[in-house]
Design brief:
The chain contains 13 helices and no strands. It is mainly α. It folds into two domains: 95 residues, no CATH class; 251 residues, no CATH class.
Length: 374
């Protein structure tokens, strides 16, 4: 029998004897059932978020009222069709009242990159601050070491780099301006190589954190040392603005991604070193879930950095324009993560207030009983 036939039979053939299925009961309850049907159809078509507050409140009330009707029919009624109809109606209403709607996967992804990733960084900012400090220490140490000791310059240069400490200013400038006439296809292939290399560096800093974070410390210091030695070699020949205009347009995003990977590595390492009350296995599992967010979040950063390095750095853009682009990138990331920090702080305050309210709600009966016993 179809649902429509069941419903029509219910109206046409009510069992008159039991009070819970009598004509008076049905006539009195029928408008409420119809109203609930209408609200459910509207919620299914438009979604719960589009219903007004009054409609949501009414939906909840009608659902609870229909559960009472269903209980009355089941205990005192003898009409199986009426019981089946009400059971179906209550079940459909229950899915809207208690079961949260399935989130849209695309909205979840967009929400993660809009605020979720930045909030994850805000929750673990001390680890990323340590990674930043280590990178800066490595950069300053590499800069001064390369400036004072020629052997340190060779030790800190990247393998295969043709820019050697003995290069002239003309040779260094020529290398900074090389590749600007590359065809688009060659730049795209170069961008792909850069993305793979930078992602590998960040991934190594992240995964190595499982070894108590020690390899992550060394990687951050070493990468900072390479940056410091590279800038020192150019500074010695008076090439200051141009070398930073060569580094920063992609370096702001690239080094930010490496710092975040290093912070994730420290988070993982801390879970190993200090397991806490929950145990090392549980702590590592919880830290791993947070680290997965970083692994997903830094991928766009590495893509942006590779595109800037492969196309913008290899373009005819002037020094001032490059530095302006780098400054704009820095401001964008600063605003992005500041917004995530503020959203996370607001969420924490709301959780604290809610926890305090729940605690006060639980304490109230105890206080009443304590007062009545005096």
């Amino acid at each position: 029998m179809s649902p429509s036939e069941t419903q029509s039979r219910m109206w046409e053939e009510p069992a008159p004897e039991p009070a819970a299925t009598g004509a008076t009961f049905i006539e009195r309850a029928r408008p409420q059932w119809a109203e609930l049907e209408e609200l459910l159809a509207r919620a299914r078509k438009r979604g719960l978020k589009r219903l007004a507050a009054e409609e949501l409140s009414r939906l909840d009330r009608l659902y609870r009222l229909c559960t009472i009707h269903l209980a009355q029919v089941q205990t005192r009624g003898r009409d199986p069709n009426l019981t089946a109809y009400l059971n179906n109606l209550v079940a459909r209403a229950h899915s809207f009242v208690y079961i949260s709607p399935r989130p849209n996967p695309l909205k979840r992804v967009v929400g993660f990159y809009m605020t979720g990733f930045a909030r994850a960084v805000a929750r673990t900012w001390p680890y990323h601050a340590v990674a930043l400090v280590l990178l800066l220490i490595g950069a300053m140490a590499g800069h001064f070491a390369a400036d004072l000791e020629p052997k340190a310059r060779y030790a800190l240069m990247m393998p295969g780099d043709v820019r050697l400490p003995g290069s002239t200013a003309e040779q260094l400038q020529e290398m900074l301006r090389a590749g600007r006439d590359m065809p688009w296809e060659a730049k795209f292939a170069f961008t792909t190589q850069l993305f793979a290399h930078n992602t590998q560096v960040g991934w190594n800093a992240f995964v190595a954190g499982i070894l108590a974070g020690v390899p992550t410390v060394l990687m951050l210091l070493y990468n900072g040392g390479i940056l410091g030695a590279f800038t020192a070699m150019h500074h010695r020949h008076g090439i200051v603005e141009e070398v930073w205009a060569w580094i920063l347009p992609h370096g702001v995003t690239e080094f930010l991604a490496i710092i975040l990977c290093g912070g994730a590595g420290f988070l993982l390492g801390m879970a190993v070193v200090r397991p806490g009350l929950h145990g090392r296995k549980e702590n590592v599992r919880a830290a791993g879930k947070e680290c997965v967010r970083f692994a997903m979040g830094v991928i766009p950063l590495f893509i942006i950095a590779a595109l800037a390095e492969g196309f913008l750095r290899q373009s005819e853009l002037g020094t001032s324009a490059r530095l302006i682009f780098a400054a704009g990138t820095a401001v964008f990331w600063l605003l992005y993560f500041t917004r995530g920090y503020l959203v996370e702080q607001r969420a924490r305050r709301e959780q604290t207030l809610e926890a305090g309210w729940r605690a006060g709600e639980r304490e109230t009966p105890e206080r009443i009983r304590a007062g009545s016993s005096l």
